[in-house]
Amino acid sequence: MHIDLHTHSTASDGTDTPAELMRNAAAAGLDVVALTDHDSVRGHAEAIAALPAGLTLVTGAELSCRMDGVGLHMLAYLFDPDEPELARERELVRDDRVPRARTMVRKLQALGVPVEWEQVARIAGEGSVGRPHIATALVELGVVETVSDAFTPEWLANGGRAYAEKHELDPFEAIRLVKAAGGVTVFAHPLAVKRGEVVPEASIARFAAAGLDGIEVDHMDHDEPTRARLRGLAKELGLLATGSSDYHGSRKTVRLGEYTTDPEIYGEITRRATGAFPVPGAGGPRPA
After folding, report:
1. Closest by Cα among 75, 90, 79 to 5
2. Which residues of 223-242 are buried (b: 16+ CB within 10 A; e: fewer)?
3. Which of 99, 155, 176, 268 is most buried as measured by Cβ atoms within 10 A of its Cβ?
4. Alpha carbon of 138 to those of 44, 67, 274: distances in Å?
């Protein structure tokens, strides 16, 4: 089985619609794909409706968190999307995205970048506006070559010159809320130092004690020594070790299924979840 547990659609900051993402996942040879848009479940219905036969969808979201001034992301899988407390927190985060993005645009303008809010809004479309949309604007303006190049201290990385904070969950509260909604939590790209400051490994141990289920090990922003270190940490703490593409469509160079999760780990995630269940595709034939 080929299992990719971290992807984004136009419901947040990807470039594929949820339906396109499902078709592309099937074409890439995936058996299981998770849709984990930022703080949003808005793309799930469209993805389910477009599921081709032979592809299973894991519903989820990537929750924005912050601890001791460090931003981090918590992948939440198979939770009840209607659980009111978690739904309210996701809404608070989403509502703060536009003011935050406008602040970053103003900071870039103060740095001499001729970016306009209208440009960022056009790029975001109906999605939840975020840093990748602003990064895409910087690419269009020729300020940076790629979206990844914008996520540096010079520009949009955590604590960078044009960075602005938004409402974010405490990670311990995120773990509690997801568990209360019947879901499973995995700490996304925990040691992606190229994105900015990361939390210390001691904090990951505290997350594990609070009920964290796993950590994302195989990811494009982790080099091989980092992956080996994280695998050892996962074993030491009794955490599940996942692998995922963090696919954003054409916004990043990573391909669907470039990094994957072991079927046994996927099976354990589904066994732990009680808020929702994987959705098997019953649509048309898989793309050739």
Report:
1. 75
2. eeebbeebeebbeebebbbb
3. 155
4. 29, 28, 42
Question: For 184-240, what is each residue's pLDDT tens digit?
Answer: 999 999 999 888 789 999 999 999 999 999 999 999 999 999 999 999 999 999 999
Longest dimension (CA), the chain: 52
- In this structure, what token pair is assigned to residue 9? 């659609």
DSSP 205-226: HHHHHTT--EEEEE-TTS-HHH
Query: What distance in Å separates the CA atoms of residue 187 and residue 90, rounded to the nearest whole number?
Result: 17
Is 0.85 surpassed by the pTM of this model? yes
How many residues in total does the chain contain? 288
Give the ranges where 96-141 is alpha helix by DSSP (H).
97-110, 117-124, 131-140
Residue 35's Cα: distance from chain center in Å?
9
For residue 273, what is the DSSP state? -
